[in-house]
């Protein structure tokens, strides 16, 4: 199948792009890496009238530290995330998730802005953003506003961004020395969207968990925080019995549905196994880190 | 290794050498010329409106908006085309009482599977044609849909075709020996009830054709991504009432076929009809979605089988029930009965077994047709047989290697006839078994398995023996009335400079046919292989033959080339004798030169000889027959098929908490007779194994009860990818067939035939200690978890 007819406009700036969006009478879409959008168009699942190419807007690039946060420009490619030393040392959860996103060819084109804006519930980066409660920077051409990740993912492919707003950057908090994280997913083939995946970040005081955020993806219409499991684990030293309680609590946190390949019960079971295994892998802070 | 065919140390001894494919660089550099690369002047593009329903009556069709759409040249419905194309019927005489209704290019009154083409649009571009398709309004009246095997066979079942009276396309029973007695007297009986997932070939290059009808001479040229151009020449001529000599089918570079590209598809016939109507070239390329809906599917089987055992672990008898669902029509011209027929004839084939009964039912359902694909029936028969054998070993406390050794047909039994009537010239079952045992280092693997099991790691080891049908004679299709050739033809021509052109009827789809034919010609003639050019895939410039199907390129095509070359060589020596005033038998051709056999002294170049023949015939003796072009045909005579054999081994690890299976290693020991190019044989085996691994773990067309495909995209239909594939270790045993000079048999299907069976046995070996079994492929994590009782 071929994509339907579509007009194309290459924007030089954010205001340029937003203006084009506003003046389009039909359905306009921003085009970043095209790795989700073009596939959907080729299947005629999406038939926009106008594509506004934002991939050449320099202001949307770059990875830099700003105070206690790392600002990642929307056009940052998945491959850049994978190889960035700043991200490796300051946002290790994002670095851990990046190898699980698709395949090298797709990672060379796909962008973090596109991934978060598209809000595929099976995607890795939205889950990481939610686990770290990243701040999403939205630009409407005139002004910029921020939405916390926990308020951003509203429903299936639905976010808090207003029509025409460009997701200009994602701000991740810099990891603290007492913080540990882990990421894993189960997919039948490497590089596929996961059957179920989990991103975990925890702050420790010595061996005790002060605060933990557990986010599952591919289990609902958005990435999902496992609040009950988090509660079961807060204040514990993650011994086996704590983990068992968290696994039990998971039933109240997740309500996955059946799909053609995997039943809800299987997904629940896999989520529970994944949780136990990942909590077991959550590295306990080294004595040095505890002192620091 | 057996005795080489000719002296290995002489120049141009190419048979048995790993040589690269001459076309590989061109294809790698993107210079392949596939059908879609061809642009003809005034060419139009076709797109189809397809039935969204699996079963419905067509109430009305409104094409007025589509006709008025930009770029649209023609909009055509079923009755328009039916006038031009004689319908086709997928039955053959040797499948007694087989039935399937006639099929026409576009649906006329009813649709019987989702995806069936109903209306065709011709436009200046494909995109315009697709836009117009969206404007066609078709009114359907939905009818009940029948999908499952049991539902199709139930009394009062919904019928796919009312006129046929039931959903049974074909049934047959094979019986030999005293089966009832064998089971009554058995010391033990093991049984299986196995389900095999319907899957689809997924070629890199989809089905593609350009039909170009020229009304002046009523000539039709079809550029067609097919493996069997001669078969299509015949079909287009007969079904469109054209002179066969005016129908030319050209198969240029082909991006994979695996059997999928030798069946007639409604779109093929529609595109030819459209070209006749429009009197212009018409191109159609199936897109990936259309490929999922309309390429043949395969291997939708349920096999129930029992094996009776004696006290000392011998096979006393076997009973088999194979039910296979083939979709809405039997495929043309080969039928969809062949796969099931091969399942019931191949079950138990490697073993000494006389008491045998099998019942086959071939069933219609409201789905796309299934038909022949790499390995036709073999993987099903192999998996079911080898599951039974492993269960028997377990029941009797025998090692899987030992029980096979005890029951194999043994070396002194050849020639051997199986319980189902297959005749084996000679197999190497025992030798392959021993070789695999050593290759895997089986005792070490078992020791490691036991040790890891103590740590809660569940590894499994599985083996599976196969026999493969290759070099088929006319017994396969010809006797049933199909115009499918079992013979091949080859024309060799020496050019004035001493190069050799070889036009042959076997075809190339990426497997290296042209390479091995070139090797054989250069070897047997005594010229550098760079100087041999092989031409395939054009009905107008190559002799008529079977092309590529079953496994026949090397065994039949190779022998044809060998005999043609020997004929040409003898002509050359005759001419050389006259020119050089020597007796022909004192001369020899080596490295493109005529030499004295005894001394090796060079007398002249082949090019000089050819130049004399072509330009200075006045200098030759008047009665000399100076033929530097020869033609040769060859059809297998002796045994109806050249059976090959081999064995696979698989090592897996099952995560019993998640149900995920990791393939750790795969081994194959195979015997395809004379090996012409070891590298190409290895790659055929590897590619085949990967397809078998896909069947074992990943590939399945999932349909709901309404007959809708639920995973028709490359994101949802999982083909195996490099990351999932383990190392595949290959070893060979060579037992050439004595039916030909060359001694080659086929190897194209050996990889696919036993890979899924070996993995199925390995996974069950891993699950053994947990007292559970899995009896369904693909083995998905969910199915493993269900077998384990972890989830419902
Ligand atoms: C075969 C394949 C496998 C894949 N596997 C995975 C996987 O395992 N995990 C995964 O996470 N992803 C996967 N992807 C998707 C990939 O990661 C995409 O790159 C990503 O989802 C979207 O990023 P993009 O830049 O390509 O966005 P595009 O495709 O260009 O756009 C996607 C959507 O987001 C909007 N958009 C893009 N950028 C912005 C912006 N800055 N502001 C506002 N709206 C914007 C577009 O308008 C569009 O609606 C896969 C893709 C393919 C083709």
What do these coordinates show?
The complex is a heterodimer of chains A (292) and B (792). Chain A is an alpha+beta fold. In chain A, 35% of the residues lie in helices and 25% in strands. Chain A contains 13 helices and 14 strands. In chain A, the strands form four sheets. Chain A has a five-stranded antiparallel β-sheet with strand order 4-5-10-6-7. In chain A, strands 11-12-13-14 form a four-stranded antiparallel β-sheet, sandwiched between helices. A three-stranded parallel β-sheet of chain A has the order 1-3-2, covered by helices on one side. Chain A is globular, with a radius of gyration of 20 Å. Chain B is of the alpha+beta class and 792 residues long. Among the domains of chain B are: 24-32 and 487-634, Aldehyde oxidase/xanthine dehydrogenase, molybdopterin binding domain (Aldehyde Oxidoreductase, domain 4); 408-417 and 428-473 and 641-792, Aldehyde oxidase/xanthine dehydrogenase, molybdopterin binding domain (Aldehyde Oxidoreductase, domain 4, 2-Layer Sandwich), CATH 3.30.365. In chain B, a hairpin with a 5-residue loop joins strand 19 and strand 20. In chain B, helix 13 packs across helix 14 and helix 18 (678-698) crosses helix 19 (750-767). The longest helix of chain B has 28 residues, at 553-580. The interface between A and B is medium-sized, with 23 and 31 residues. The structure holds flavin-adenine dinucleotide. The site of flavin-adenine dinucleotide (FAD) has 29 residues of chain A, from strand 2, helix 2, helix 7, helix 8 and strand 10.
The number of strands of chain B is: 29
Largest interface: A-B, 23 and 31 residues
Structural class of chain B: alpha+beta
Q: Count of DSSP helices of chain A?
A: 13
The ordered string of helix (H) and strand (E) elements of chain A is EHEHEEEHHHHHHEEHEEEEEEEHHHH
- What proportion strand of chain B? 15-25%
CATH architecture of the domain at 408-417 and 428-473 and 641-792 in chain B: 2-Layer Sandwich
Average residue pLDDT of chain B: 96
Range of strand content of chain A: 25-35%
Structural class of chain A: alpha+beta
Number of domains of chain A: 3
Largest sheet of chain B: 7 strands, mixed
Strand order of the largest sheet of chain B: 3-5-1-12-9-10-11
Determine the CATH topology of the largest domain in chain A. Uridine Diphospho-n-acetylenolpyruvylglucosamine Reductase, domain 3
The CATH architecture of the largest domain in chain A comes to 2-Layer Sandwich
Low-pLDDT residue spans of chain B: none
Described by strand count, sense and barrel closure, the largest sheet of chain A is: 5 strands, antiparallel
Q: What is Rg of chain B?
A: 28 Å
